[in-house]
Structure formats: C-alpha cells, structure tokens
Specification:
The chain is of the alpha/beta class and 335 residues long. The chain has a domain of 228 residues: Spore Coat Polysaccharide Biosynthesis Protein SpsA, Chain A (Alpha-Beta Complex). It has 9 helices and 16 strands. The strands form 4 sheets. It has an 8-stranded mixed beta sheet, sandwiched between helices. It has a 4-stranded mixed beta sheet with strand order 5-14-7-8. Strand 15 and strand 16 form a beta hairpin. The relative contact order is 0.16. This is Glycosyltransferase.
Length: 335
C-alpha cells in the first residue's frame, strides 16, 4: 500500500514593511525649546534609527552637546547661523530643506513641537494609504496646542478627529496684496478630509516633495502657506487633513507656560540688520503676487496639471477676481 505524504506548504507571503526613513526639517530662530522638540521626536518615534534631523538653527549659541547627543541613533545634520544674518522663516526653511539626503519621507516642523508615541509609523501609514492613484499627497494642518505645566508638556487637543483649514471668518482680499488669514476648524470625522491650505510648521509628504517643491527663499512669512498650497495644487498634488494628527504645537501666547520666544521681526533683533523685516515682507508680497499671476518663476512657479480657475471652483478662493465664495470658509467634504 502506498503511503501518502503531506506537502509542506510554504508560509504565506507577507507584505514588505513600508520604507520608513524620514527627513525631519527644522528651522529654528532663537528657540529655547529646540532641544526639547528634537528629543521628543526621537523618544516618541517607533524607529528612531530611521530619522534624519536637518536643523537650521538661527541662534547665538548651539544647544548643549548633551542635548544633541541624545538624538542617537537618529542622524543629525546641524547648521547654525547668527540671528543677525537671518532673513526670515522661508529663507531658513529653504536652507533646512537643502539638507535632505534622499530619505523616503519628508517631515517639516516648527522648532517648538511635541509628539505622540509612534508618530512616525502613523504618518507613514496614513500617507501610504492615501498615495495610490495620486500624483502626490501632503498631510498637513495647524496642530492642536500643548503647553508646559511645572516644566512638563501637556497636550491641549482641539479634537481627536480632524483639523481642517478654512479662511478666517470675516477675511477679505486687501486691495494691495493677496495674503489671506486661515485657521483650523475641528471636524468630528474619522476619515481624512481634502485640504485647500496647509500648515508650513506641520507637513508630511513623500521624500520627493523636497525635490519637486524647493522652498522659495524670496518669500518671508505671511503668504508662504498660500504659495505652497497653490503650487502643490497646480502640479497635481493633494493636501489632506488626517484624523488624529499625532503632533502638537507650542503656540507663542500667554497660555504656553513658558516665556514668549523671540521672533525675527522683533525690534530688538532688527537694530543691527541692514535690511528690515518690512522690506523683506514687501518683497514677499510682490513674489506671491507674481506667482498667482502665473509669472515664470522657474522651480518656484505654478504647475500645469490644474489651474487657478479650477482651484477657485473647487474651494471658493478666486485669486484672479480677488473674491471669496462661501465654500472658502468651510471644510471640504471627506474623501
């Protein structure tokens, strides 16, 4: 009698883990909590060895060596510039972005942030779920706040769901420039929402974002997010507000629990400079106006996948007519 034999089955194939290397771009200006931010990002990451911090620090002195040493096994590329020679937030972000070294993902943050455990895996998972069928995607929002109580960071979540950007109620276009104000609205939704605006201090995207959308150093601060949002849109990339954004922001107000941090345009910091912040701001407004007029700005210009007219019909912000429709003041429906 023939003896039957069982065929040993091979284990079912499993999906390979998603690529996880993340470049963390940080532009800091005389920020006393820069070391805290870097340390918390490293400590809360599921895979700190996959992080590469690119820091452009505009401060009189670098953080203590012990503060920077705590970032291991993450990689750190650190550059410091005397704040006297600083030329504004966008200029600094452009220099920080230039430290990108081919990582799978790109995270741009402010230098005063806190992080939930596993923030890196959560951002990668959300972006990975959104990417199929899209030219590119950027996860962004103005994060919920955190504050310090007796030296300890405490979250102050606006919602556990989605923070979606809208034009600030009552806003209108000024006659001499296109800069608008935006704010984040809490939306009780478990699904990602499409966005027509972003937060430059909390932005996560595939690493190729750093090559496709180099930061424009000719911008100053106000209007930087509008410029990047419209560049992304016209190049066919999508902005998304995710539920449960795992980052928090230390807002520079009386509720932060720490002294207010200096700003580039503070009068005391202006005294020794050859060019005032207001001159840089005026140049920035002209730059934004040129972008929205479709002038050829090279790598900093508009794309050809979608138009400003498409954008106006979609979200209600009509730059050509300098008009805001009701949709501009409301979150867009879920994806």
């Amino acid at each position: 009698m023939r003896q039957s034999s069982r065929t040993r089955r091979s284990p079912a194939p499993t999906d390979p883990p998603p690529p996880m290397s993340i470049f963390v771009s940080v532009a800091a200006y005389c920020d006393p909590v820069l070391g805290f931010t870097l340390g918390r990002a490293r400590a809360a990451a599921s895979r700190p060895q996959a992080l590469h911090f690119g820091v452009l620090d505009q401060s009189p002195e670098p953080p203590a060596a012990s503060v920077l040493a705590q970032l291991a096994p993450a990689r750190l590329t650190y550059q410091r510039i005397d704040p006297l020679y600083a030329r504004g937030p966008c200029w600094a972000r452009a220099l920080a972005m230039a430290l990108y070294d081919g990582e799978d993902w790109y995270l741009q943050i402010d230098s005063h942030m806190d992080f939930e455990p596993g923030w890196d895996e959560r951002l990668v998972a959300q972006a990975g779920a959104l990417l199929p069928g899209r030219r590119g995607v950027v996860i962004s929002a103005y994060p919920s706040a955190f504050f310090f109580a007796q030296g300890r960071p405490m979250p102050r979540p606006a919602t556990g769901k989605v923070l979606a950007h809208v034009v600030k109620p009552g806003s209108a276009f000024a006659p001499d420039h296109p800069v608008l104000g935006f704010e984040a609205h809490a939306v009780e939704c478990d699904h990602p929402l499409p966005g027509f605006h972003l937060g430059a201090g909390c932005l996560f995207a595939p690493g190729r974002f750093a090559l496709a959308f180099p930061y424009d150093p000719a911008l100053y601060f106000h209007g930087e997010e509008q410029a990047l949002a419209i560049r992304l849109y016209t190049h066919g990339w999508d902005i998304v507000h995710m539920p449960g954004l795992p980052l928090y922001h230390l807002y520079n107000d009386g509720a932060s629990g720490v002294p207010a941090r200096p700003l580039h345009w503070d009068a005391a910091h202006e005294a020794g400079r050859s060019q005032s912040w207001w001159e840089l701001e005026q140049r920035s407004r002209r730059r934004l106006t040129a972008l929205l007029a479709g002038q050829p700005l090279g790598v900093y210009g508009l794309g050809r996948e979608r138009t400003l007219a498409d954008y106006a019909r979609w979200c209600g912000i009509d730059y050509a007519a300098r008009r805001l429709e009701p949709q501009a003041f409301q979150p867009l429906p879920p994806l």
